[in-house]
Structures are given as structure tokens and as C-alpha cells.
Amino acid sequence: MRHFLDFEQPLAELDSKIEELRHISDGGDLNIADEVARLESKADKILRQTYQKLSAWQKVQIARHPERPHASDYIQALITDFTPLAGDRGFGEDRAIVGGLGRFRGYSVVVLGTEKGADTEARVRHNFGMAKPEGYRKVRRLMELADRFGLPVLTLVDTAGAYPGVEAEARGQAEAIARSIEGCLKLKVPLIATIIGEGGSGGAMALAAGNAVLMLEHSIYSVISPEGCASILWRSAENAKDAAEALRLTAQDLLKLGVIDQIVPEPLGGAHRSASETMTRTGDAIDAALRPLLGMDGKALKAQRRDKFLAMGKKGL
Fold first, then answer.
1. Which residues neighbour 300 within 8 Å (Cβ) at sequence distance 6 or greater?
2. What is the pLDDT confidence band of residue 162, given thresholds at 50, 70 and 90?
3. Among residues of the chain, what percentage have pLDDT more than 90?
4. SS3 62
5. CA-to-CA distance for 288 and 224, rounded, in angstroms?
């Protein structure tokens, strides 16, 4: 059964009616095909109208949709001969971040992604995509491996942020994130980062300081979650909608600000309505962003990445 968001309730009602009609037994005298077609046409019209005027808060909801494809789905769809690598060689394995070696459209690559999990069991296993210090140290380890063997790095970001627990802080969460960002910036190989869902705080930035930063049309990317921002500024998470607007966290806002380089269009209704189409489009965008970088040497790649981030905030001044 399809999961509908709060603002999609008119669509939910139409979908329910369509399903009811499809299950009606046709005795020969009753032809329901025309009525089903009429309702489907109406639903398509409402869907188009709804997604033409989405608010920032509605985009937050879409980015968090439980049926949205996750990092593991993209890896399965886009990476062949994938060999997962685990552990930070210091403390242990963090399942919130998946990574390994594979081939992307003929290129040998290192791929890394934050994985939220598709069901309750998987979400618990992957800690809802919130990595601990060992996860970010694994990121740096695999990036150093990529650098050593001259392999491009592809990252897939979908996290509410780094894990905020006491044990994570005790093991050096802030230092691990900072080292991971430093590792991104020091790479002598291309790094293509893609925000596929939720890009939250330093936990996202730790994988996203790339030569090119792509962002799916209805994904979000921000220094803090709307709820966290609202709890600080208004002392209440109930103002999350206001915070979402103020944070300028949508792909469209961030492209104007120069924070990201490209928006990857999603199918009408969001990535969850056609996961295969979304992943194909994402693969095409990654391929197009990667090709021009493959001919650059390590020094030029580092300089391009450095200049890109130093220029942020100057646009429009």
C-alpha cells in the first residue's frame, strides 16, 4: 500500500477510490474502466498542481519519505562488482555508513553512503543513518585507499546528522567529522557527492566536500534540522515549518546560493514513485559530472575543490 504524506491526502482519497473500483467484480453489465480512467486523470492533475508549488517544509517531508530509495539501493543499481569494506581499523564497524569498491559505468571507484534502512529492523541496524566516530573514520580510511590507488570517490548522502549520543562524543565525534571533511578536501582524485535525501549538519558535510555536489530535486541540505533550529530559536519544535523556510535548505535555494552544482530532476511525485527512473537519472548526472574531472591531475583537483568552497558566500555580493 502506497504511503501518502499529509499534504497528499486528496491523492490518498482518490487512490483509495480507484483501488475500490478495480476490485469490483464486473458482471458484464457494469463497465468501470471509464470511471477509473477519469479518476486517474484527476489524480494526475492534482499531483502535478501539488508538486508545482511545494513549500520548504513539504520538501522536508518528501526527503524523509520512508519509501524513498536509500544509499544501498543506489549502490545495487549503479555499482557493479561491489565489494563492501568494513571497520575503521581502530574501534569497530559502523553500519550507518556503507562503503566499498566497485565499478561505475566502466570506472573503478570507491563508493560511500549513509544508509537509513528501509524497514524497522534495518533502521535499527543502521542506526537510522546517524554515524558514530568510527563511521567517519571508516570514510577517511576508504578515501585514503582511493587516493592511494587513484580511484574516483562517489558519495551518497542521506542522514539527519551525526549520532548525538554520549558515547559518540566520548569517542571524539567532532574530531572524526572534521578529519573526514579534511580527508575530502585533500583527495587527489575526483570526488562526486550526491544528496539523495536528507543532508543534515556536519554528518552530511563529512561526505560531501566534493569537486561536484549534486542534489536530488526534493532532497534537503542544511546545517541543522528544521526541528533543531526551531527548538533553538523559538524554544519549540512546532515552528519547524518556519525554520524550514528560513534555512534555505531546498535544492533550488542552494543552487542559487552556489552551495551545490546541479539539481537532479525527480519523477513527478518524488523519487519514491519511480525509484528505478530516479536512480538512472542520478547515475547519468554523476557520470556527466565525473568525466571532465578524470583528465585533471591531483593538484588541479585539490585546487578546484578548495576554490569552490572558498567562493561560497560571495555569490551576489
1. none
2. very high
3. 76
4. helix
5. 30
C-alpha span between 228 and 237 (Å, rounded)? 7
Q: Any idea which of 18-22, 80-84, 171-175, 263-267 has the lowest mean pLDDT?
A: 18-22
Ranges assigned E (strand) in the chain: 80-84, 97-104, 107-114, 153-159, 191-200, 212-216, 220-222, 262-264
Contacts of 99 (CB under 8 A, 6+ apart): 84, 85, 110, 111, 112, 113, 138, 139, 142
Confidence of residue 317 (pLDDT cuts 50, 70, 90): very low
Q: Is 141 helix (H, G, I), strand (E, B) or coil?
A: helix
208 closest CA partner among 56, 68, 312, 69: 312
| Cell numbers representing residue 76 in the block | 545495487
Q: Are 82 and 75 in contact (CB under 8 A)?
A: yes
Phi, psi for 112 (deg, rounded to 5): -135, 140
Q: What pLDDT was estimated at residue 21?
A: 76
Beta-carbon neighbour count of residue 231 at 10 Å? Answer: 17
Q: What is the pLDDT of residue 25?
A: 53
Strands 191-200 and 153-159 come out as: parallel
**Residue 241 pLDDT greater than 60, yes or no:** yes
Residues in the chain: 317
What does the longest C-alpha to C-alpha distance in the chain come to?
75
What is the spatial distance between Cα 145 and Cα 4, in angstroms, rounded to a whole number? 42
Reply yes or no on whether the pLDDT at 103 is more than 80: yes
Quick one: pLDDT at residue 313? 72
Burial of 3 (0-12, 13-18, 19+ CB in 10 A): exposed
